[in-house]
UniProtKB/TrEMBL annotation:
This is Carbon starvation protein A. The chain crosses the membrane at residues 40-60, 66-85, 126-145, 151-169, 190-216, 222-242, 254-274, 289-310, 317-334, 354-375, 396-419, 502-519, 550-570, 582-603, 610-631, 677-698. Pfam families: CstA (PF02554). It comes from Cryobacterium lyxosi. The lineage of its organism: Bacteria, Bacillati, Actinomycetota, Actinomycetes, Micrococcales. InterPro entries: CstA (IPR051605), CstA_N (IPR003706). GO terms for biological process: cellular response to starvation.
Length: 755
């Protein structure tokens, strides 16, 4: 039994009761196997609609394709994957047991370990994992055409991304909420475990920094966005206190209040944007916003999870799921036509102005979080496993949460594809390519020689006027492009052109709120990871309730990602264009590490018949990301290889050049030399550490097979003394048991420490 479970918590000693804490497994199995005629009709219709949608996207392709097929293909595939594939994994690999207490019950401390209502926890988990990746990656990958990205986002999440999230969440929960790096050390030994610990810590720094960079770009010089996003902090604090002290358990009640306050913050932002003091005090530059995010990240990571993190993430989930749902409905009603080719010429030439590189392997590392994300493994072994009430909830939260993120990615891709291609490239090309001017952008985009693209200055100025911005040229980072796409679609449904400004700023606020929740959750997880690592040498650090250790670990991790954020903010190449490939590769390498750890755990449990569930996505992720890493390290093309770009700019400086390529002056040239060297060295570190982890995982798997292992490093089982349903909607058997628990007198109910 691991530290923290040797003594039975007082909360488990209090209340004797004779109610079941879990449904009978045979009753559960019988309910799953029950197929009524209505169920058969519904699932047959879902399958047929999904099949038709894929045929329309991949086979019946004309000059245009209707956007509704993206929505139907995605939702139908997700439903089938969740109902059948995740159930298969639950039955044969996960094997949850609701009679066992989760860490939130047997380690409850009211700060990091706090049993949380599954609906609130789904909101927290989804908000934490759904950061910049599903918004930025698909937008950037749109330059390669619509079909490859669509296939990877939808199919990849069902077979890879959601599988990883589900398994890591369950395995971490069974191990007392241990971090990914610590689980790797336990399962892979000293060499593989140490490599994983270092890799996860360093990669986490890069990931959080780039998430923060996207927020910075979205909020820069936008009083509307700064006010609206800033107001979500006091709203979340109010929600946390309301549920904790005033009306515990009243989820629906505070949900309505929070939603009303959130809408008021958005409307208020528009009003503030038109005031003199708003323009004076809230029109902030990127560096100022970056420092604000750094300070916020530190504070959010040390406050109790119930006070800010969980309610803020739950609040933002309203915004996220509501906005994506609204966009999906608008697409179905309006049925916009997509004029982008299924596969563009940039997919084979690798010379795209948005992200350099060919379709393989750069499509996969660019889309990143929308299909498979290593960052999710850190959240799934960070805050979330410490908050789960019952084991069967891991499927809904882990697998289901990742499917929802993939839907976000598809909506982002459709929004980017829906706008004029000329405007798309003008927005996403770096200032060095467009000169940052309308005339420069028009000349650059028309010079690309794209079929059917004829950009004019009025197209850019009119769009900027419609969305209430001075300029939309070189608004890199993906977020502004998604906002333009969303406003373009929504104004056709509600309000017309006069409402485009509202929808644009609504989307900007939505995106910033979306991503900032991943920054604060990521910082908290980074603190857990560092404490786990330091705890191998100084055991006291493993106690997450020890405040000096928590504060010190938080300060170290915030300082690390804050330094990278400031480097990106001041990058002359636009920051996101340069750093996002590193983010994508690091993120996917981290996913390979997580899947490698999962493979070792499954093998040690003797489940070799089902090892393919993990081995297939691990093999694909390893090939893709190691290939991409080698290209970024060894490519002689400056647009792709970090060291090739470093040499090109260094040689230009040595030759006395005062400007070169995308750098307009000597300072910018020196920054490129410095940044590319840092990125190149980090790429080498990431890929070497990842290869070590993957090889040691394979070694552990082979050893387990030879020994016919049935070992586990799980915490010893503790008998649960409470009950909670597994999914968002209770099944009939769950309703019966829940009614029995609800009928208990208040003094006989186990007190839930969280929401």
């Amino acid at each position: 039994m691991s530290e923290g479970t040797t003594q039975e918590p007082t909360a488990l000693k209090r209340i004797p009761h004779d109610l079941a804490v879990a449904l009978d497994p045979q009753e559960l199995d019988a309910h799953d196997r029950q197929w009524t005629p209505l169920k058969i009709i519904i699932w047959s219709a879902i399958s047929l609609l999904g099949g038709l949608s894929w045929v329309m996207l991949a086979v019946v392709r004309g000059e245009t394709v209707n956007a509704i097929w993206f929505v139907f293909a995605a939702i139908c595939t997700y439903l089938i994957g969740y109902r059948f594939y995740s159930k298969f994994i639950e039955k044969h690999i996960v094997r949850p047991d609701d009679r066992r207490a989760t860490p939130a019950e047997y380690k409850a401390d009211g700060k990091d370990f706090a049993a949380t209502d599954r609906r609130v926890l789904f909101g927290h988990h989804f908000a934490a994992i759904a950061g910049a990746g599903p918004l930025v990656g698909p937008v950037l990958a749109a330059q390669l055409g619509y079909l490859p990205g669509t296939i990877w986002i939808i199919v990849g999440v069902v077979l890879a991304g959601a599988v990883q999230d589900y398994l890591i969440l369950h395995f971490s929960m069974r191990r007392g909420g241990r971090s990914l790096g610590q689980m790797a050390r336990d399962e892979l030994g000293v060499i593989g475990g140490t490599a994983a610990l270092i890799a996860t810590l360093v990669i986490m720094v890069i990931i959080v920094a780039i998430l923060a960079l996207v927020v910075t770009n979205a909020l820069a010089e936008s009083p509307w966005g700064v006010f609206s996003v800033g107001m979500t902090i006091p709203i979340a604090l109010f929600m946390g206190c309301y549920l904790r002290f005033f009306r515990p358990g009243k989820i629906t009640e505070i949900s309505i209040i929070g939603f009303v306050l959130l809408i008021a913050a958005i409307v208020g932002g528009g009003m503030v944007n038109g005031t003199e003091w708003g323009q004076t005090y809230l029109l902030l530059d990127k560096v100022t916003i970056a420092w604000g995010i750094i300070i916020y990240g530190f504070i959010a990571a040390i406050l109790p999870v119930w006070l800010l993190l969980a309610p803020r993430d739950y609040l933002s989930t309203f915004m996220k799921i509501g906005t994506i749902g609204m966009l999906a409905v608008a697409i179905v009603i309006i049925r916009p036509e997509i004029n982008v080719p299924a596969v563009s010429g940039f997919a084979t030439t690798g010379t795209g102005p948005v992200v350099a590189g060919t379709l393989f392997p750069f499509l996969f590392v660019t889309i990143a979080c929308g299909a498979l994300s290593g960052f999710h493994a850190l959240i799934a072994s960070g805050t979330t496993p410490k908050l789960i009430q019952k084991e069967r909830q891991t499927r809904f939260i882990g697998y289901g949460g990742m499917l929802m993120e993939s839907l976000v990615a598809i909506m982002a891709l459709v929004a980017a594809l829906s706008i004029d291609r000329g405007i798309y490239f003008a927005m996403n090309a770096s200032p060095a390519l467009t000169g940052g001017t309308v005339q420069g952008a028009v000349a650059f985009v028309n010079g690309l020689g794209l079929t059917g693209v004829n950009l004019t200055p009025s197209m850019l100025t009119d769009m900027a006027t419609n969305v209430g911005e001075e300029s939309i040229v070189s608004r890199t980072g993906g977020a502004p492009t998604l906002a333009v796409g969303l406003s373009h679609i929504m104004q056709q449904l509600i309000g017309g052109t006069s409402m485009m400004s509202f929808w644009y700023h609504f989307a900007i606020m939505f995106e910033a709120l979306f991503i900032l929740t991943a920054v604060d959750a990521g910082t908290r997880v980074a603190r857990f990871m560092l404490q786990d690592s330091l705890g191998n040498f100084f055991p006291k650090f493993k106690n997450t309730s020890w405040r000096p250790g928590a504060w010190a670990a938080t300060a170290i991790m915030v300082a690390a990602w804050g330094a990278v954020l400031l480097m990106g903010v001041t990058d002359p190449l636009g920051g996101i264009n340069t750093l996002f490939p590193l983010f994508g590769i690091a993120n996917q390498l981290l996913a390979a590490i997580a899947l490698a750890v999962c493979m070792a755990i499954v093998a040690k449990r003797g489940l070799f018949k089902y090892l393919w569930v993990v081995a297939l996505p691990l093999g694909f992720a390893s090939v893709v990301t190691i290939s991409a890493s080698f290209l970024k390290i060894f490519s002689t093309t400056p647009g792709i290889g970090y060291f090739a770009q470093n040499r090109a700019f260094a040689n230009a400086l040595a030759a006395g050049e005062t400007s070169f390529g995308t750098a307009p002056n000597v300072l910018a040239m020196e920054a490129v030399v410095r940044n590319t060297m840092v990125q190149g060295v980090l790429s080498i570190i990431f890929v070497v550490l990842s290869i070590i982890v993957i090889l040691t995982a394979i070694q552990a798997t082979v050893r387990a097979y030879r020994q016919r292992s049935n070992a586990t490093s799980e915490d010893d089982a503790v008998q649960s003394q409470t009950y909670a349903p597994a999914g968002f909607i209770m099944t009939p058997p769950e309703k019966v048991l829940q009614a029995q628990w609800d009928a208990l007198p208040a003094e006989k109910k186990i007190k839930v420490t969280g929401h």
